[in-house]
Amino acid sequence: MRNKAGSIEFKRSRVELLKKAALVLLAFAPVAVTAAQAPYEPVTDARLLAAQKDPGWLMYRRDYTSSGYAPFDQINTGNVAQLKPAFDYETGLKQGHESPAVVNGHFLYVTTPLDHLIAMDATSGKVLWKYDHDLSKAALKTVCCDVVNRGVALYQNNVYMATLDNHVVALDGATGKVKWSKALMAPDVGYAMTLAPLIVKGKVVVGVSGGEYGARGFVEALDAKTGKMLWQTHTIPAPNEPGGDTWPKGAYKTGGGAAWLTGTYDAENDTLMWGVGNPGPWLATLRPGENLYTDSVIAMNPSNGKIKWHFQYTPHDTWDYDGTNETVMTDLTYQGKPYKAIVSASRNGWFYAIDRTNGKLIYMEQFTHATSVAGQKDGKVYTDDDMRPTPDKEVFTCPSFLGGKNWWPISINPNTQMAYVPTMHTCMKMKGAAVSYKAGLPFLGESFTVMQDPTQKNWGSVQAIDLNTGKQVWTHESDLPWNDGTLSTGGGLMFSGSADGYFMAFDAKSGNVLWKSDQLSSGIIGVPSTYTVDGTQYVAVYAGWGGATPIWGGDMANDPKVKSIPTGGHLYVFKLAK
Amino acid sequence: MEVVACIDQSSPAATMDMNVVRAAVATQGYSARFEKFDGSGVGDDPYSEKNFHKLTSSRCQLVLGFPVDVQAPLLPTGVKGSAPYGQTGFALVTRDHAPPELSQLAEGTEVAVAYETAPNLFFEHHTNIQSDVHPDNDDALDALAKGKVKAAMLWAPIVVQYTQRHAKGHKLFFALLNEPHARWDLVALYDDSGVAAAEVFDKGVGELRASGRLAALLAPYAVVGDRPTASAVKPANVVSRNEYNRGGLIKVSNTKKKSGAKAPAIYSAEQASAGQQVFMSNCSMCHGADLGGITGPALKGQKFASAKDDFAVSDIFGILSTQMPAGRPGTLKPEEYAAVMAFILQQNGYPAGPNALTYAQAQTSKVPLISSSK
Fold this sequence. Notes:
The structure holds two protein chains of two kinds.
Chain A: H1 8-26, H2 45-49, E1 69-70, E2 83-90, E3 102-104, E4 107-112, E5 116-121, E6 127-132, E7 153-155, E8 158-162, E9 167-172, E10 178-183, E11 198-200, E12 203-207, E13 218-223, E14 229-234, E15 264-266, E16 271-275, E17 296-300, E18 307-312, E19 328-334, E20 337-345, E21 350-355, E22 361-366, E23 373-377, E24 380-383, E25 394-397, E26 411-413, E27 418-424, E28 426-438, E29 441-452, E30 460-466, E31 472-478, E32 487-489, E33 493-497, E34 503-507, E35 513-516, E36 529-533, E37 536-543, H3 548-552, H4 554-558, H5 560-563, E38 570-576
Chain B: E1 2-8, H1 14-26, E2 31-37, H2 52-58, E3 62-64, E4 68-69, E5 74-75, E6 80-81, E7 86-95, E8 109-114, E9 129-134, H3 137-145, E10 151-155, H4 156-165, E11 172-176, E12 183-186, E13 189-190, H5 195-211, H6 214-218, E14 234-235, H7 269-282, H8 284-287, E15 311-312, H9 313-323, H10 334-347, H11 359-364, E16 368-369
Parallel strand pairs in B: 1-2, 1-3, 5-14, 8-9, 8-10
Antiparallel strand pairs in B: 4-12, 6-13, 7-10, 7-11, 7-12, 15-16
Helix pairs in contact in B: 1-5, 7-10, 9-10
């Protein structure tokens, strides 16, 4: 459907740019693993199932529940003030740096924008090997929101990454040797991948980005050993499938529903939960119906990808409120009743608790000013029709399409029973409009402007929400947007980084700032992680401003305070001063 | 005396547009000359309406082929519209017999429509019909021609073109719809430099209408319409997500390298500092305040423009004036584009001179662009 006719000459300058970047990176020659280092310990299914207790940090959000919580308490509320840099590593790249440091024993892995992967010693930062994915230039055409990558997955002796040109690559964890590389789709057909893969029972599970380009999203599982495709589940049902009648006929082919963030695995119920993005085209009046499973979480059987249940956060979306934000498994008590739940802070500005055994809503509460989604009736979400733009009506609604929270993952702390939520305070003007032509034929889209939330004086905050009520416990305000995920620890701490480059430790209970790093080289959007090697606890985070905020942020991006945030990627690792 | 009109050669109604211009200006004693351009867009991406003011400011006095919604008459940014010279729009199309009223179609009739077009809106008020969305027009017309659907709602000029190309197949019939956002006025776009030409055109169209010739010139693509009033069309000034430049096709011509040529002074120092301001507010978030590149590539140094890249100033200017800023291409004023070009030249080691670089010079300049900075 898409035909590719890019100009060779133009691409050339881009090729050279990439080559140049590759040369810089190659300067780090492989260094032999020192004898002192333990051999590579395979990451078995048993270790993944017990990842919460592992001394390392074995996957994107630490464990299958996506908790972002580590039990370590060597660094705690009493001594965190003594936190000092242990080592740092500069990537030489200026785009958004979002990957967490994923750690197995002495081996630490981070990815960079444009799909480079670096293995280093987790105690010294010494580079062990590097992999530079030969990124097909064509892929960059369809990357809407910065050329980012969100890190690796580990399994047995391998490390896995998904790339912007739709490859999944398996490399030997100890040496960096490529074991296999599999293309899911041609680049340049409307898809890309930016997420960290998830390993479930011998499968590498990934989802695609591409909600803005008339694609049809899917989640796919590959054999971790060979890369062979085992199943693929489309997030938009065909007309003859359940949910197919929530679309006009034929619209499923271009219905969007990208699945661009890592899912959660409920081992007890053997259920894989994955968030689904916005429907296409943007203007909802063009596609009457609920438009399943866009803006939903779908629960699948990990053996075959079959959908067990779903919950839709935003029905018939017209505001680009992807439902991709992570779901975190937690047990909670609501109005006296215990639940096995998942919680998610949605793009639409509402905080949801859903029964993970059946997909039924437990509660939903606003965590920021939210006017498009209005509430729930009998467990079904409804929207405010007055907030729907049409070709004849402009609306002003909150939050903006960038969301009350975007991809920046929340964490929870089982001791405080709180979720820690990075929050953005923007609204938008939006209107349906005949905005473009092709051979004289007018097409309908939406025009929009991101603006300050009139009820707030700041662009952002990071807040704690009581899991048992959905209500705010404390908030830390920020005049800049707060675009960093959060990390919770058994030391009573919550870590997260500010857009002006301060990595901070908060008292998880009160929200008091107990420690603040020196100003790092750039704004922080990297997912923070923590690990223990040889009895020492480390905390790692990338500085490296970028992502969607500076590109799509409208008034926010043009605020001189936001504009002046320096760029440049830098991994910082901290430990207690001796 | 001559009127120059840009004609979108990819529009199915290009011949009609040329016939109308020729006949209209002839009534006023003018001849017509046509500049062809390709408004088909890139791959799946539509043609950016923001390009229109570039056409009117450089190539022609009038631009034809881009109708405006009768209900929401927003014009592309930076241009004005003539009085409507006809009306076209979305039509109900049927096979082998003339189309009935929408409401007369049998309960449950599937009607083919194309992705992201206005007819997708019509089902809301016509519950007797069901939508069958197709990725593009040809796909929808094929479904109708093969009898997979009984009806389609598509852009009338495209239906005409299809029936001409597939003369031997089933006969298709169509009638313009009277639904919200179905009717589109044909207007000629122009800017300040085209005011006189637009006046000639408007007068001419008035005479054609009065003498009854207009309908024949428009058929079968469009009708005269019932609103021969002066244009009440407002300019649009919105950024559209739809139009986000997906880094698509950028054409760079094959200019010969003029080796050894000394860097000429083609811009002024004041202009470069004005350009710096434009750059900092519109480009630096992607290309870096130091032009070192972030999401967008570097705009300075060897990796941007080395001798073997073989770029001329006009090549780079073509990219930045039609594709940048990515996300809202064409939204800057012509003089801002020229200034930002001056700034890029300055940053790449070109000397300033007494005269500012004009938009037109930048568009045609064959001065080789070879960076002398690191």
